[in-house]
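Here we describe the complex-level prediction in full. Unlike the single-chain runs in Section 2.1, the two entities below were treated as one system.
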Amino acid sequence: MNRTAIDLWVGIFVTIGLAAIVFLALKVGNLTSLATVPSYRLEARFDNIGGLKLRAPVKAAGVVVGRVDGVRLDPKTYEAVVALRIENGYQFTKDSIASILTSGLLGEVYIGLDAGGDSVMLADGATIAKTQSAVVLEKLIGQFLFDKASSGGGK
Amino acid sequence: MPADAITNGLRRVGAGAISAVTRLGFAARFFAVVLIHSPAALKRTQLTLREIYFAGVLSLVIIMVSGLFVGMVLGLQGYDSLNKYGAGDSLGIFVGLSLVRELGPVVAGLLFASRAGSAITAEIGLMKTTEQLAAMEMMAVDPLARIVAPRFWGGVISMPLLAALFSMMGVFGAYLVGVRLIGLDSGAFWGNMRAAIDFWPDVTNGIIKSVVFGVAVSLIAVFEGYDAHPTAEGVSTATTRTVVEASLAILALDFILTVFMFRGIGG
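The structure predicted for the assembly as a whole is:
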């Protein structure tokens, strides 16, 4: 086999190999998570965050507008302080409500943002005043059993 | 008499251990020497291109066909299991993650070891047997720079590309089975897959794995060829050893890399 034929075949091989890596990056994985979209920071305080994890999505009307950036416990009030990174294109009113939700019965835990009617927008570093904590299924079941037992005992 | 048998047995174990450690040390020094000779070899690009042709281009067919079939089987089996839990739409996630993280690098590496690694060992071993390497040294041509280093780098460069092609064909095979044959929604297949698989760390870790496997397989192949006994039997033993050692090295390295890469994820 002569030199130019080898060059050609190696060229084809390297090109389709690199194309496969690009395919894996764009079509199979999402490259967007690598890019740093300009964003600002919000905080929200919850009594209980349930199974919320770092990098969980923040959604408004079902659209992903940001990610959970950090979770810590306030040692004085024993509240969970969740830091949110919201993309710069999205602004939320001062009376927005942040709630911890689950997609489906077994799905991922995310934060839902419901915009209110205020004209003032939340600035970088602001804290969302109105929050709704995660629904802990075990507590609900416990409550249900307790109610059943006490109402059964009354009869 | 029984005391003799015991000491002889122990002596055999000791000799085996010493020769294993000696070979390991020799291989490590060989690796260092190959790296030292690499710049000179890489400067003559044509030599390495030739080896990429033999190791990479000629492995294309087996890698792509295997990838396609592995992907199709994963599609069928994965759908069968996932559908029991009503999660058939997650087929894309299942297939994509297993291919990109594990099966792509590992199966492509195993195929590469048997297809290209054995060929490299046999070639270098036969050159040694027919005293071509010694003849080169007589002509003041360094066989490490002229023969060994180009083959080593040809393997190292080919391996990640082959692994990526394997994964791509696997995803395509799963798409054929899942969407075309079973009738899943094409949007759910690609959308779920893209939502669950990140370029960093999933795809990049797969690429890192394939580079590590490429170095391991190529090094074992050139070392076994260079170290072969210069007889017909020696070359055949060396070729067998390449395939066995390279396959075991891939599986062991894969476990070690996986422990480091994915232990913290999702926790």
